Amino acid sequence: MTDLAALEALQAEVVACRRCPRLVAWRETVAREKRAAFRDWEYWGKPVPGFGDPEARLLVVGLAPAAHGGNRTGRIFTGDRSGDWLFRALWKAGFANQPVSRSRDDGLRLRDAYVTAAVRCAPPQNRPTSEERANCLPYLVREWELLDRVRVVVALGSFAAAAVADVAGARPRPRFAHGAEYLLPGGRTLLCSFHPSQQNTFTGRLTEEMFDAVFARARELLGGRVSPCGGEVGTVS
């Protein structure tokens, strides 16, 4: 069983992190200046922890919070179009109780799934530096160890896939391709997907059918069923 106290402590540590001066400055500037459409929001403006079912068998790893998504709402993939794609797909596959995620108190609950990111602060132009990636990687390592029931990992984009490979100790790194599937050291399965960014979804590089197929395959690898929710973590404030 997952050490819930240790996972919650890790999340609190993530939220308090100030290791990367460039990311600290950027996330806080965005939170102050805001986007006109969200001028009435009180932006989160801090690192964004992972969230979901602590007994999850499915782990989803993204790149980083969006400046006006997770950096605004305080929950990864929440409040942006990438999140619209992700949670709709998770809902269709049975891993979420609803297809939308707008805020941390919108009632969304994940079943048998946990969502996190390789980098926990919103980076300028969505491009973390190698040093920033290295600073954040230990958090993913600890989630990897604490979420001990995980059997399938969906990496959204090549950046996330490389981070997962490094955490798992896969050498050489698996070659990234949408729909690619690899057995990692330790027995977990890596499924690769294009990131549901607007750059990919608006151009048709990633379609809804392609994305849904990844999560359908994840469910198939888990025996075709989703386990009942074992609780929830990710409400750190």
What is the structure about, briefly put?
The protein has 237 residues and is of the alpha/beta class.
What does this structure look like?
- This protein is of the alpha/beta class and 237 residues long.
- The protein has a single domain, classed as Uracil-DNA Glycosylase, subunit E, CATH 3.40.470.10.
- The chain is 37% helix and 11% strand.
- It has helices at residues 4-15, 21-33, 70-73, 81-92, 130-146, 158-168, 198-201, 208-221, and strands at residues 51-52, 58-62, 113-117, 152-156, 181-183, 189-193.
- The protein has a six-stranded mixed β-sheet.
- It is globular.
- The model has no long low-confidence stretch (mean pLDDT 96).
Secondary-structure blueprint:
Layout: H1 4-15, H2 21-33, E1 51-52, E2 58-62, H3 70-73, H4 81-92, E3 113-117, H5 130-146, E4 152-156, H6 158-168, E5 181-183, E6 189-193, H7 198-201, H8 208-221
Parallel strand pairs: 2-3, 2-4, 4-6
Antiparallel strand pairs: 1-3, 5-6
- The helical percent reads 25-40%
CATH T-level fold name: Uracil-DNA Glycosylase, subunit E
Number of domains: 1
**Gross CATH architecture:** 3-Layer(aba) Sandwich
* SSE topology string: HHEEHHEHEHEEHH
Order of strands, main sheet, comes to 1-3-2-4-6-5
Average pLDDT reading: 96
Percent of residues in β-strands: 5-15%
The CATH superfamily appears as Uracil-DNA glycosylase-like domain
Rounded to an integer, what's the Rg over CA atoms? 16 Å
Mind describing the biggest β-sheet?
A: 6 strands, mixed
Based on Cα principal axes, name the global outline.
globular
Number of helices: 8
Helix/strand-derived class? alpha/beta
CATH top level? Alpha Beta
